[in-house]
Amino acid sequence: MTAISLRNLDISYGPTKVVEGVSFDVADGESFALVGESGSGKSTVLKAIAGLAPDWAGEMSVFGKPRGHGTDRAFAGTCQMVFQDPYGSLHPRKTVDSVLSEPLVVHGIGNRDSRVAETLAAVGLDQRFRFRFPHQLSGGQRQRVAIARALMLEPKLMLLDEPTSALDVSVQAEILNLLKRLRREQGLTYLMVTHNLPVVGFMCDRMAVMNKGRVVEIAEATALRDGSFDHAYTQELYAASGGTQHDGHV
Ligand code: ADP
Ligand code: MG
Fold first, then answer.
1. 2-78+155-240: which CATH topology?
2. Whose CA is nearest to atom 1 of ligand 1?
3. Which residues face 97 on adjacent strands?
4. How is the chain split into domains, by residue range?
5. Any idea what the Cα angle at residue 11 is, between residues 9 and 13, rounded to 5°?
6. Is the pTM higher than 0.90?
């Protein structure tokens, strides 16, 4: 089964088309990266899949279901997004408990107390964090809460938009290791934006390289071992990254 299928996807903000003719498939259970320099349209592709960039044309389906242009409550049970900035994505006056309970309330799911406790444990947070507010957490702890929130409805697919790039270097590896473990334990599919090629080598099976709104190359992550890429732009990115492998201990 294909988790995500994009065909000739164009995405615009007002009169400006920022993504053009993007096509790729992500397999069920795969970890797939979107790489490319800032402004190349990576976040916009994730937002369109999530329903947050409604002005798109082409074909887009998730687990075989065509995506519509509006919001779709059932979709939240299949696909969740984690944003770059855990400071901005958590409401400052809501406790961790209320952030994690909210999706369950909205979707009429019971057993909330034990589900919140289990999910906190799954992301490596002690129960004493449950009644804290975001300002009482470190950046890494906040991103763990944002990941826990995304897991509450037991989705199959996670859209991860540079999930570690707003964090201190010392906590980036912890969060990458957490995401890697969660994918293994819960059989998740990841579509992950990053501008960090070593992170792709550590976390992903394949990657699509974007440049100026287009996909210029789709490659196996193993190509990062020796930089055997077809497209000159990918070779440039590889050279700029120093061509190093990421071992999860930055
Ligand atoms: P990336 O994630 O690769 O850095 P983005 O998808 O955020 O790139 O942005 C792609 C292009 O779309 C950029 O030129 C950016 O300025 C523009 N853009 C992003 N978000 C908006 C928006 N909400 N309104 C108008 N233009 C936007
Ligand atoms: Mg972005």
1. Rossmann fold (3.40.50)
2. 39
3. none
4. 2-78+155-240, 92-154
5. 175
6. yes
